[in-house]
Amino acid sequence: MSRIIAIFRSETLFFTRSINPNARRVISSNIMEGLASPLAQIFLGAFIWRITGSLAAVAIYKLGEAVFLPIAFSLNGFLLRRFPIQQTYLFGAIIAGASCALLVVLEPVGLAMLFLCGCIRGVGNGLYYGNRNFLELQETTAEMRQYFFSFVTATLMLADILVPLIAGWFITAGALFGWYSPLHAYWLLFALAFILMLGSGLFIARGTFESPVLVRILCFQVSPFFNKRRLLQMTQGFIDNFGFLASVLVLYLFGNEGALGTVSALIACISALAVYGYGRVLGEVRRSITLVISVVAFLVCALLLAAFHETAIVYILFSGIAATFLSLASYPIILGSIEEEMTDSERYSFIVDSETFLNFGRILSIGVVLFISAHNSIQTALFSSPVIVGTLCLLSLMFFFRAKKKSTFSISTVSQALSLLRQEE
User: Fold this and answer.
1) Among 3-12, 89-98, 356-365, which is the least confidently predicted range?
2) What one-character DSSP code corresponds to residue 223?
3) pLDDT tens-digit profile of 116-128?
4) What one-character-per-residue DSSP string does 102-150 give?
5) Range of the domain at 406
6) Cα–Cα distances in Å, from 289 out to 67, 292, 295, 330, 341?
7) How many domains does the chain have?
8) What global pTM score does this model have?
């Protein structure tokens, strides 16, 4: 017991020394959002599946979200020119939380209404993440960033163990014992999600942060300097939001939210310690290897799923872990390069640009699901679309490494790129 206490004190001391007070406030906000995130990311799709029984309906909702996320990122840039970042952060958190409640209130079954609800959620998330991504970049240094993201990811994964497990069996228990209907359970859960998102926004709204001075919001530059990041963001986008298909697959195979919550908690449990250890021990040289292993692991799981449907649980478990490690390795690379090569006034435009290509990858992967489900059965779309998405992801990563090898980031190269940007203004 004394050894456990000593380890806890050692890690607490390491945390306080490594993370500055403003970054700790950002972490606290992230944790509040992380408690609400499983309710939205996992159970919004489950709710749509419950009321429609259609994979296309779930994909359409996710498509609306992916289309309007980068639009809202751009809108947020214009808002930041008039309002402090604390206010725009809180505004985005409120819309993102309210979008969950809106879906369960309207109970939309038409594709057009589902797309509209997805668009509203995309706007809320775009405003929220546009500000949060900037604060994560502004309030962290290159030295602390690997530990910062690993700590946040591992902490949220621990929340991901409890929240889906409790929420899933809360929905199932009502119908099982006749206490309440699944719809009433969803009402309560999405109301809780709204409260948590409000709390996340208030953590930042009550803090003292420097708002960005934005010279440009949109970036249209085409060169190896920019395209390398875009390829990596698109690679990440292919599979980081593809978890909605795994959620539907669980419901398709097992039939209730309790099983969905249990599987989601199991994924988080397997991932949490590995992710924290990755950030605590391994250095930057391992990031490229992590990218490759993550994408290859996803594709292998997808091939097993397509060839042997009995391996569905293997795909569900390890595809989620692969997506987590892909994101974990990608973000420090992207944010670090922005910090090194951009001035403060130019950074937000690169965040918008990165989010645009991240969602471009998401839109393509969702498009694969929609295309296959429109021409084949739900079963075919569930079991075969991951192979296509995994292949696209691998090809995109190969082009990223090729661009990385060819590009040289000397001072003159960076100066030329920035010069081109300023000439456009």
Assistant:
1) 3-12
2) S
3) 999 999 999 999 9
4) HHHHH---SHHHHHHHHHHHHHHHHHHHHHHHHHHHHS--HHHHHHHHH
5) 2-424
6) 31, 5, 10, 11, 24
7) 1
8) 0.81
